[in-house]
Design a protein that fits this description.
By secondary structure, the protein is of the alpha/beta class. The chain is built from 25 helices and 27 strands.
Length: about 650
Amino acid sequence: MTPFEVVERDGLARLGRFDTPHGTVETPALLPVVHPDPARQPIPPAEMRSRLGVRAVITSSYIAWRTPPLRSVAEAVGIHGLLGYDGAVMTDSGAFQQHAYGTVEVTPEEILAFQLRVRSDIPTVLDVFTEPETPHDAAEAALEETLSRARAARAATPGLLAVPVQGGLHADLRWRSARAASGLGDVLAVGGVVPLLEQYRFVELARLIAAARPALSPGKAVHLFGTGHPMTFAFAALFGVDLFDSSAYHKFARRGRLLFPEGTVPIDEVRDPICRCFLCAERPLTDVARLPLPERERGIAFHNLVASLEEVGRVRRAIRDGTLWELAERRAGGHPALRAGLEEARRHADVFLATEPESRRAFREVGPESRERPAGVRFRHRVDGYRAGRPSARRIPGVALRPEYLAHLPVEDRAGRPLLWETTTPFGPVPFELGEVYPVGPYLGVDEFLEPRSHLSPAAFRERVVREVGAVADLDRDWTDDWTRRQLESLLEWRYGPRVRARIAPGLTGERSRRSGRLRSIRFGSEIHFHVGTDGLPRPTFRGAARLRPLLPLGRERVTVSDDAVPFVREGRSLFSRFVRSADPALVPGSTALLVDGSDTLLAVGRLLLAPPEMAALERGVAVRVVAHAGSRETEEDEPAPETE
């Protein structure tokens, strides 16, 4: 069995790859559904590969098996020969026909043996298709039968195997099925969802994927059957779906309908050049609409397939850029049902948080609902905890505070009681010292472009401070250094907790950007011990990590490196998942961690690509990228690039 590798990721979504006998499949990937009868396939698979770069397709082994002429050819030259295709081929087993017609005329053993004889790259277990409305008892019995078939198929299959995940709309059964399938399959195929997709029941789809997702092994590719419309790809990818299959490109073509990520358009209503793909440059859609029926159907199908592949490309780019939630929210605007499904997904923030990155380059608002993304939920929860740790502080409602106000803003009253000034943000009031932390600091929303904010002058702001605290605080001194101290201590507490902050903060000083006034580094003497990036988070240099390590409980903020990889990590090489001995389960992708050997000697500082539970499940690929080690230079030149306003 070939291990799955994660290359890049954005939350649960990932850019990955796995090998098959007919080449590497890079995910997310669209597997066009191709008919095993070439006469009924409008676009030859070979043309998909040569013109569109399609590396994998899916076809029905059941149709080929039950059609004697196709069966004899497939058994003679293999499924690739039958299709005339030299890329990876996944075969379905007849479960969809079971859904459509109520039964199939083949046993699980027969159809698996046929898939193996015709040398399918990814054969699929013949599961018991469970309709969404199936009662719990019947769904459970069907699931047990599917798992029995899957265990037998695993024993009989030496190569890759797709195992379906069933259970209807029952969360407990979906979870149980996902966990069992993870121990048997290489591709985990979430099935029984075609009726939900056809009926635009995206809320129920979100619930069942949310139920299954925590039990799906991160070391396996995840396939969602029936995700054929391009407007659904970003939604599915949010849940970590790696493979989509599409017969929609052809089905909609037969009805004369064009697929776009924003929805569907009847070709007979097209009057203007609404598409600029290379196909439409060769032949406009208005001309395609007038072609004889077979050519018209082929032209629409080709357009639909191009539109679908382009959308997968956008999903891949969004994952790489950390903007998949933005893309999914934009796509959800195309249909109220999809918008409702995305709203339901936000209600399951706990499903996303284990792999939700510590920060992204920016937090761009698509609408007010953007604030309910998992990053926003986590941030508000942590702000509540930060306030709870300061029960004696006096909270003062804020305005849009700016760095130039710091000199006039007392951090405590004359009795030494802390003053907790709060600034207004899209996530509610936030303590000023945390106002640069992701997602608040790099937040970009519509309010900034409606009307320019009327910022107070420093003098006018001082008048407001006088009204708030009056004579209870010293307003004649310059409070800038005190704010710098509070901010660096607060950021260290935010990242490492109050006990570590109290032990590490003495002797540290903060340095602000001369241009923006933002905190940019934390030093001990002349040495930089922490960089503070545009996400507002403190990230240790090697010197900072060396100072931090003895102050942290054993195992905290650490990834322990296997002995075989110690020399390489010490020299600055990336740490691969198979060489991870253990990792702090509280870390998330994007976190900066201390890389140590078995005796807790510091080797390097690294940024996590994988969440700790994934490191044990993935046999291939990088788990942590080293960013600093004992031999690396840590000077002014190593500081992050200047922030953009």
